[in-house]
Amino acid sequence: MTTIAEAQALANPKSTTSVSSNGVQATEDRFLKLLVTQMKNQDPLNPLDNAQVTSQMAQLSTVTGIEKLNTSLDAMSKSFMANQSLQAATMIGHNVLVPGDNGLNLSGGAAAAGVDLQGAADKLEVAIKDQSGTVVRKIDLGGQANAAALAFAWDGKNDSGETLADGKYTFDITAMQGSNKVKAEKLALSEVASVTLGTAGVSLNVAGIGAVDATKVKQIF
User: Fold this and answer.
1) If both were cysteines, with which of 75, 135, 175, 194 could 121 make a disulfide (CB 3.0 to 4.6 Å apart)?
2) How many whole angstroms separate alpha carbon 19 and alpha carbon 67?
């Protein structure tokens, strides 16, 4: 009785375990020809087992079906990625909130960043620090009923209302629900310069940050 593996071996002498997308039809034709030949030349006193023939046909159908399914899924995946790339391209020139501790770049009396709050909090505060680590400004973002990604802006002034020099600043986050701390991560806010479509999907080239997976964008402005 000819098996699927034997038919594959005859169709592709260099491999006995795999069927390429270009060789599926050839393998199927070769298998059926061998099966018909065996049935024509079978011993009348010892005919082929019907159950075995049915099993081999079912295996062939499964191999062919899986290959066709893989081809369809590959086409769908390519189409999906192309659509993703087109959609991501609309983000070029827009600001996005993405995971990362990029600090605050004060320029012309303006800076912005974000907070990714992991749960409800009745207190959410940002403490901005200068290069020496001294807190120069505290910004109260108020209570938040749910987990959320929030952007905040800083006008470059300290708690006394004095305008500070442009440059690099850092910030810390305090999030509390009663006496319990709530996890909150820093988000960077910057402009999308370009979009790249790669094998891993769509990535954004964000100014001052670099390549960022498009699925990690928290907000678009």
Assistant:
1) 175
2) 8
